Amino acid sequence: MADITRTSEKKPEILSFAVADKSRSQPNVENSKSSPQEATWKLLIVDDEEEVHLLTCLVLRNYEFEDRGLTLLSAYSGAGARTVLRENPDIAIILLDVVMECEDSGLKLVHHIRQVMENRDIRIILRTGQPGQAPEYEVVKRYDINDYKAKTELTAQKLFTTITSALRSWRDIQFMATRNQGLQRVINASTSLFEWRSRNEFACSVLKQLVVLANGDDGNHCQEMYSGLFARRQDGNFLIDCGTGRFSTMRERRVADVVPDTTRAMVQRADRQGTDFFFNHSYVCCIRADNDEEILFLLKGRSELHPLDQDLIRIYMSTVAMAFHNVNLSLEIIETQKEIIHTLGEVVETRSKETANHVLRVGKMAQLLALRTGLDPEEAAILRLAAPMHDVGKVGIADAILHKPDRLSDEEYKVMKTHTTIGWEILGKSERRIMHSAALVAHQHHERWDGQGYPNGLAGEKIHIFGRITALVDVFDAVINKRVYREAKELIEVVALLRKGRGSHFDPELVDCFLANLTEFVGVVKDHPDEGVVTPVESASKEVEGQA
Predict the structure, then answer these.
(1) Please, which residues have CB within 8 angstroms of residue 5's CB and are 6 or more apart in sequence?
(2) CATH 3.40.50.2300 fits 14-174, yes or no
(3) What local confidence, expressed as pLDDT, does residue 352 receive?
(4) What is the mean pLDDT of residues 430-457?
């Protein structure tokens, strides 16, 4: 007979029979709020007859399925069962009586489980002592139950068979749910793989998701189970770029110096074959792009990954391989665009007898001002590449006008102004983001805040922020440096010019931001000087900054 612990003379509403420990000759009965037994299957008995609970416990005391015993939870009414279900969401099976506090208590509980709790996984076995009050045909037809048994037919052997069949079903349902969740994690992790980013940003993001997949949770305990690293091949060695867990402090070290011999051998094998392997609680994957750029991912843990997790990781990494090729191709295109832009900028400035450092400074200052005004870093990086192209249209201006040391006539000035439209026509045919931004800058960098600029007389925020920023930094760099038609101006004069143009020539907020950070912009000029430039005095720039 089971040892039942009671807290009062009344029949306990909820009991828990823990029968997983086969070393006991009798089952141990505990309060249902005790700590969960993770290594057992949970079965809930719902019946108003106490003898049914005790007999079920005795019959199943030595039950085991897939090396796991049972934890039997017990409730004596529909209301009590709802409490147990709420506190134990991982219950696999319910042995459910129909008639308890009322004639259809069990059927109402079935409805609550399926419709209110929306629990379709738990296996419900209806076990009734009064089949006439709940005819099998009607019950099975109307209610989502998984089995129907009369108490008189449930012998010990049949109970074993019924429970085993139900556990198999519940296990398979949980397996499919876990697989679906894993696939969803893979899908979620893959959605950002094809976004434009640097190689390092791409790889470190992949590593983070890879560690989460290996640990099979939301990543809160990633460093407790699996550690990972990402490395790039440089000069014949894989050097660590980023890592988690045990590898988190090993940046720039050689992989061969921080892993054991067996792991080193597997890394070499993956490198030779350009593939991936699972081995000794570890995973290694080597990916090589068409341009021979080669990267390595390595996971090391304290236990073997489940075959399901291995499948999910392989699915994810196959997508990573495609994305890595895409990233490399995109970066090759971007690098080519950078070279074209820089070369065209140099050609334009050289032809107009201005130095190539002008386009370099304009790009850097445009990015700096964009960041200081709160633009997204990616947008600021695009502007740095686009701003140097602001005067590309000057390739269409005659030398006689472009190199004239004296003041231009009205007719000559009219021709000079066409360089904005020429620049737009040269660059505007491309659909590439950088080239499109460069076309926009070339077209709008002579527009004015008050609408008195050219070529379209745009005003205020109708001028793109890229055009407004480039207009300000271009003027600043032009007047602080020597040109063929005039000498360089002193810093104090340049600041006065910007203040005078605040709200008329320039966006007033951009002027305020520029002057508030003047020292940084002066630093760009000092770092990339031209012959004849007036080197600003640091104290003078700080004095002006304080007056802004």
Answers:
(1) 29, 30, 31
(2) yes
(3) 56
(4) 91
Place of tokens 């190539």: 356
Contact 536, 518 (CB under 8 A): no
Q: What is the pLDDT of residue 72?
A: 93
The continuous run of DSSP H or E covering 410 comes out as helix 410-417
Q: Quick one: which of 431, 447, 545 has its CA closest to 494?
A: 545
353 pLDDT above the threshold of 60: no
- Amino acid found at 167: L
CATH 1.10.3210.10 segments of the chain: 352-547
> Average pLDDT, whole number, for the chain?
80
- Quote the CA–CA distance of 504 and 482 in Å, as a whole number: 25
Cβ atoms 536, 527 nearer than 8 A: no
Q: Please write the tens of the pLDDT for every residue from 444-488.
A: 999 999 999 999 999 999 999 999 999 999 999 989 887 656 678
The tokens for 453 are 């600029």
Phi-psi region of 394 (alpha: psi -120 to 50; beta: other; left: phi over 0): alpha
Q: Is 108 a catalytic residue?
A: no
Instruction: State the burial class of residue 410 (Cβ atoms within 10 Å of its Cβ: 0-12, 13-18, 19+).
Output: exposed
Give the model confidence (pLDDT) of 157-192 as tens digits: 889 999 999 999 988 887 777 666 666 665 665 555
Residues spanned by CATH 3.40.50.2300 within the chain?
Answer: 14-174
Domain with CATH 3.30.450.40 in the chain: 194-329
In the set 42, 300, 364, 394, the catalytic residue is: 394
Neighbours of 220 (CB within 10 A): 9
Nearest to 477 by CA among 536, 415, 424, 435: 536
Tokens coding 433: 């983001």
The answer for 485, left when phi > 0, alpha when psi is -120 to 50, beta otherwise, is alpha
Topology classification of domain 194-329: Beta-Lactamase (3.30.450)
Rounded alpha-carbon distances, angstroms, from residue 300 to 213, 222, 246, 247: 13, 11, 9, 10
Helix (H) or strand (E) holding 15: strand 14-18
Residue 134 pLDDT level (bands cut at 50, 70, 90) = low
**Backbone phi, psi, residue 524, to 5°:** -65, -40
Report residue 47 CA to chain centroid gap: 49
Please list, residue by residue across 69-102, b when 16 or more beta carbons sit within 10 angstroms of its beta carbon and e when fewer do: bbbbbbbbbbebbbebbeebeebbbbbbbbbbee
SS percent in the chain: helix, strand, coil, step 5: 55, 15, 35
In the chain, pLDDT over 70 holds for what percent of residues? 76
Q: Is the C-alpha dihedral spanning 341, 345, 351, 355 positive or negative?
A: negative
What is the fold of 352-547? Hypothetical protein af1432 (1.10.3210)
The rounded distance, in Å, linking the Cα atoms of 83 and 77 is 10
What contacts 34, CB < 8 A, 6 or more positions away?
Answer: 16, 18
